[in-house]
User: Fold this.
Amino acid sequence: MKDFKILIVEDDKSIMNLISTTLKINQYAYISASNGNEAITLCASHHPDLILMDLGLPDIDGIDVIKTIRTWSLTPIVVISARGEDDDKIQALDNGADDYLTKPFSVAELLARIRAVQRRLQYPAVSSEEQAVFNNGDLKIDYASSVVTLGEKQLHLTPIEYKLLCLLAKNVGKVLTHSYIIDHIWGNGIESDIVSLRVYMTGLRKKLKTDKEESLIQTHIGIGYQMIRM
Assistant:
């Protein structure tokens, strides 16, 4: 992608050198910040296409930096952190991060995450407000008629399954946490628990099953679900 610029937010010099060298070798333009305040300033002034964000910063916690940036920017944020617990990942994703990479990480995995962001930017998610029909591989959602087809087959979905599918389609490529999905589907209703969500998602995934090896909806154990771009 032309003029793709990355902001690295990392206070560990060795990790910063690893990431910056990797980006340089692979011909990515980048700028860097070693603390949260600097990251916010650079994001506002340079408008990067992607932010690689450490959480353990010396002045402001990375979660708070994400919250601040999300008040005025939708720039994709990939967290790169030593915090590997599910609760840390969920907190980051719920507060606006798009992806999460745990240290130590491989250079190949980092580059794969960057390429995934580039694909999402090149082929952005389509919501019902933006276009009447959503297409992803063999999947087609006609929002005007609420008809879902997979290849030549029309799918018969329950109202909840249809709402789940539309929410995932609107955020194609992004990992949606359990709490995010529950809040958007049930709000504070009595049915809004993870057990119910898993039951509905199991039914939806069965209906979306094809002969192809790659699944349209991926489960991130302990975190949530993601519709992948086919």
Summary: DSSP finds eight helices and twelve strands in the chain. The longest strand covers residues 5-9. The two ends are 19 Å apart (CA to CA). The chain has a mean pLDDT of 86.
